[in-house]
């Protein structure tokens, strides 16, 4: 019985050490020093690395000023802006939209789903970039930036 207990303890110690080694290989890329999250987290998985790309919001068309809220633009403007912000984050990790394998789309109540999809199809499933990711899309009550109507996050593999 002591041998079996020792074997189990040894196996668990080896598994624990492997977990520590893998945790040390995880890369956290981008993001502001004051932000509560990073832009991209890279997790090696034995031949490929998975990249978890934080959700990106649009950049306001006009920033809030003199007590006035930010103006975010229409669905097309917001979708294009979110894609540009994602491209910047992903470029820091050496990624492109061709590496995206999963997307989650969070849409505010005023977002036009069909218009968002029109812009989506200019980035995915094209002759220049034929890869399409799996995707889930949800309407939500509100996003982190008041008035913003779109946030998209990705999982990429390379």
Topology record:
Layout lengths: L1 H24 L1 E3 L10 E5 L4 E8 L18 H17 L8 E8 L5 H8 L13 E6 L10 E8 L1
Parallel strand pairs: 4-5
Antiparallel strand pairs: 1-2, 2-3, 3-6, 4-6
Helix pairs in contact: 2-3
Q: Tell me what the CATH architecture is.
A: 2-Layer Sandwich
Strand residue percentage: 15-25%
Distance between the termini: 46 Å
Q: Please, what is the oligomeric state?
A: single chain
At CATH level 3, the topology is 60s Ribosomal Protein L30, Chain: A
Q: Classify the helix fraction into a percent range.
A: 25-40%
Summed up, the domain count is 1
Q: What is the CATH superfamily classification?
A: RutC-like
Number of helices: 3
Characterise the protein shown here.
- The protein is α+β, with helices and mostly antiparallel strands.
- It has a single domain, classed as 2-Layer Sandwich (60s Ribosomal Protein L30, Chain: A).
- It is built from 3 helices and 6 strands; from the N terminus they run αβββαβαββ.
- The chain has helices at residues 2-25, 75-91, 113-120; strands at residues 27-29, 40-44, 49-56, 100-107, 134-139, 150-157.
- A 6-stranded mixed β-sheet has the order 1-2-3-6-4-5.
- Strand 2 and strand 3 (49-56) form a beta hairpin.
- 22% of the residues are buried.
- Mean pLDDT is 86; it is low at 1-21.
């Amino acid at each position: 019985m002591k041998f079996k207990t020792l074997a189990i303890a040894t196996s668990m110690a080896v598994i624990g050490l492997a977990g520590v080694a893998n945790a040390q290989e995880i890369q956290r890329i981008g993001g502001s020093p004051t932000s509560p999250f990073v832009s991209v987290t890279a997790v090696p998985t034995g031949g490929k690395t998975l990249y978890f790309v934080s959700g990106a919001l649009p950049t306001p068309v006009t920033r809030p000023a003199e007590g006035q809220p930010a103006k975010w633009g229409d669905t097309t403007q917001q979708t294009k802006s979110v894609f540009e912000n994602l491209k910047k984050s992903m470029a820091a990790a050496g990624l492109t939209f061709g590496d995206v394998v999963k997307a989650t789309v969070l849409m505010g109540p005023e977002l036009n789903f069909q218009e968002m999809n029109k812009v989506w199809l200019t980035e995915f499933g094209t002759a220049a970039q034929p890869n399409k990711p799996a995707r889930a899309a949800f309407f939500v009550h509100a996003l982190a930036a008041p008035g913003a109507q779109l946030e998209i996050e990705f999982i990429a593999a390379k």
